[in-house]
Automatic annotation (TrEMBL):
This is PAP2 superfamily protein. SUPFAM superfamilies: Acid phosphatase/Vanadium-dependent haloperoxidase. PANTHER family: PEROXIDASE-RELATED (PTHR34599), PHOSPHATIDIC ACID PHOSPHATASE TYPE 2_HALOPEROXIDASE DOMAIN-CONTAINING PROTEIN (PTHR34599:SF1). It comes from the Bacteria. Residues 314-432 form the Phosphatidic acid phosphatase type 2/haloperoxidase domain. InterPro entries: PAP2/HPO, PAP2/HPO_sf, V-haloperoxidase. Gene3D superfamilies: 1.10.606.20. It comes from Pontibacter mucosus.
Length: 466
């Protein structure tokens, strides 16, 4: 027996052939019929394969690339996975591959894993191989493992095709993106202006002399917001002769240097714990929450996609601000404290931050921006700020765990860590937090939203076999 369900505007046509038991389908609401029907199938799809590919992505690229490049790669791969699933059975809006005409025919709770596993695996594989060829062998291996475990069928073939199309659509949508790379940068000479010559990147290496990274990132087409300057507000960096700047200067001077005696052991741990790339530690947190909250595969792919979308847009927005204001980093400010025209700032020509300062201007903090954006997405997704999660930092403090009781705590620690390692002044992180929170809220409210089946203009048919 088959049931064919089609949506025509706001009307439902139900054609029943033969007879079905009362368990074959639930009563249909005029507005949410397809949505609710699909939920039954989607809820039966576990997060296992989604997390397998997410973990492989982490193992392949974490801390292997310049931070903006890693963040962008994460966004593109995870969004392709999301789009693939939502072209198997439409549940949420997509990023690149339109799912208005997605064909969910013959998909049931019993066979949804076959097509969905094939789709998400092929999408993730194709993206990783294209964007990070060094991952080809491991991606080929996992794809073969997943596909070998699926019985050959039309659904498996359809899933592979959906995955290929999802990856191709994301790549096509981003085909005009310029390369993110090191470039020589003149910098300024006046007090307060960004200077490269106090950073390790001023010396020729795998980069040109006086190099910064991706000075044009702020003009890259965003993924989920309107423009790089959408959240830049009226607050500019403090004037050097202001009491606020002097307070920030003295704080980072006393807390952000190597072996600073004024920094507590807790501050030292926070500084090192959160130093890694935002995309990698947010990815681990998202995976842990997916498992803790027992999200299904569709929910997992959407959450991770939104998190990574918010992070790349936070990088774009913060870099737009950095190269708009072009302010100096603490290492430059403190080493030139006696010649900045401000009597209240005492210089230290030998001052060193805990880690090598990133090759970008100062204001606002990208790390704070991204942490606040991700926290806003997490809070919106789970409709609460409260969590209870032990998180790790395997690349810088292996074996150390921090217990996170709220997303706000995570965002705060990640932000102030940049003071404790000598990367930023407090104003940089506070502005990054404020703007990042707005960005994350915007990304969540305007992207990958649950579909309203009543308002879909295109037809979709489902015909579960009974």
């Amino acid at each position: 027996m088959k049931t064919i369900l089609k949506i025509f505007g706001g009307f439902i046509l139900l054609i029943s052939i033969g007879s079905c038991s009362k368990d074959d389908f639930e009563p249909l609401d005029p507005c949410k019929s397809v949505q609710n029907y699909n939920n039954g199938m989607i809820n039966s799809y576990s997060n296992g394969v989604v997390l397998q590919w997410n973990e492989l992505l982490s193992q392949s690229v974490d801390q292997q690339l310049p931070q903006p490049t890693e963040v962008k790669l994460y966004a593109m791969v995870t969004l392709a996975m999301h789009d693939a699933l939502n072209n198997v059975v439409p549940k949420y809006e997509t990023y690149a591959l339109d799912n208005a005409s997605a064909d969910a025919s013959r998909i049931t709770k019993k066979n949804i894993h076959a097509i969905a596993d094939a789709a998400v695996s092929q999408a993730a594989h194709d993206m990783m191989v294209q964007l990070y060829p060094l991952a080809t062998a491991s991606a080929d291996s996992l794809l073969s493992q997943v596909l070998t475990g699926i019985t050959d069928s039309d659904l498996k073939t359809r899933g592979i095709d959906v995955g290929r199309r999802a990856a191709a659509a994301v790549l096509d949508k981003r085909k005009s993106d310029f390369q993110l790379a090191f470039e020589s940068y003149p910098g300024g000479t006046a007090p307060g202006e960004f200077r490269v010559d106090y950073l390790p990147w001023s010396q020729p290496g795998p980069w040109p002399a006086n190099a910064v990274f991706a000075p044009n990132l702020g003009s890259l087409t965003p993924f989920g917001i309107k423009s790089g300057n959408q959240f830049r507000d009226d607050e500019a960096p403090y004037p050097l002769n202001s009491k606020e700047y002097v307070a920030d200067y003295n704080e980072v001077k006393s807390l952000g240097c190597k072996d600073c005696p004024g920094r507590t052991s807790e501050q030292t741990e926070i500084g090192a714990f959160w130093v890694e790339t935002s995309s990698s530690y947010m990815n681990r947190m998202a995976r842990a929450l997916v498992e803790q909250r027992k999200l299904n595969g569709w929910e997992a792919a959407r959450l991770i996609g939104l998190i990574q979308m918010s992070l790349i847009d936070a990088y774009i927005a913060s870099f737009e601000g950095k190269y708009h204001y072009k302010t100096w980093r603490p290492i430059t400010a403190i080493r030139n404290g006696d010649s900045d025209g401000v009597d209240a700032t005492v210089g230290d020509a030998g001052w060193e931050p805990v880690f090598n300062t990133p090759p970008t201007p100062n204001f606002p903090s990208t790390h704070a921006y991204g942490a606040a954006a991700a926290a806003a997405v997490f809070k919106s997704y789970f409709k609460s700020d409260q969590i209870n999660l032990n998180v790790t930092s395997p690349y810088h403090l292996p074996g150390v765990e921090r217990n996170i009781r709220s997303f706000s705590q995570m965002a705060y620690e990640s932000s102030v860590s940049r003071i404790y390692i000598g990367y930023h002044f407090r104003q940089d992180v506070e502005v990054g937090q404020r703007q990042g929170k707005k960005l994350g809220k915007y990304v969540y409210e305007n992207n990958l939203r649950e579909l309203n089946q009543c308002n879909m203009e295109e037809n979709m048919s489902t015909s579960p076999e009974m």
